[in-house]
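2024-03-11 09:14:02 DEBUG pipeline.ingest accepted 1 chain
2024-03-11 09:14:02 DEBUG pipeline.ingest length=302
2024-03-11 09:14:03 DEBUG pipeline.predict start
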Amino acid sequence: MTTRAGFIALIGEPNAGKSTLLNRMVGAKVSIVTHKVQTTRARIRGVAMEGDAQLVFVDTPGLFKPRRRLDRAMVAAAWGGAADADIVVLMVEAHRGVTEGVECILEGLEEIGQGRKVALAINKIDKVKPGHLLELAKDMNGRYGFAETFMISAERGHGVEDLRTWLAGELPEGPWLYPEDQIADLPMRMIAAEMTREKLTLRLHQELPYQMTVETESWQERKDGSARVDQVIYVVRDGHKGIVLGKGGETIKAVSQAARAELEEFLNRKVHLFLQVKVRPNWLEESERYSEMGLDFKDGNT
């Protein structure tokens, strides 16, 4: 049997649908998906099997113009993930077309795209008419030499199988990189923290989600097969702590219940989840926080 394996980087602007596509490809929720932009901070690898090929997806942070240290580290991680991959898939939203952000990404591809296949995936095709899709595909291919173009809806699954089959056939021959039944290479502590952060992001609005982080402080296996998970939510201001807790603690209680339910479903066992909120004014400037998120602190330097 000839096996194939390799890394596939999904790149694009924030909210292009990268996490949704990753989760659909893998068949499990390994990357958080919200209506907020910039929710994916670390390069999350999801593993999918297609015939004799193992597809290892790198879901990179959305590419945008960075302002803060965290932003710069996220953008550096995104380009690093693309540069390390065997195949790059650029995702573009059909209804937004060639934005200024997409143009910047195309410029970046000129630098790192050499020597590797780059495919174009036009996502959210249900939001525009077919004629517009063809015009966008022609425009994009006139700007960059894509190996293949796919019209998809990551949310509904349209066109995803075609993309998956093509990717499997284009990966280099070689042994599988992970056990066949492994779907992600993130430590369980980080996956649990991401689940809690997703629930917080869904409940809170405006800028606050990008000024907080979640860390799994301890993970204890219990004799009855359950797990006790203690997490800390770091915020930068006292006022933010009140927002996260909510009136009478209702917000953090709802977040805890939702995160615990999802974690139990993911692990298929009982979980006891305990959340604390701590004010840490400078967490955005602490190297340890970046390591927790799988980012390089040095990449945030100007």
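2024-03-11 09:14:41 DEBUG pipeline.report The longest helix spans residues 250-267.
2024-03-11 09:14:41 DEBUG pipeline.predict end
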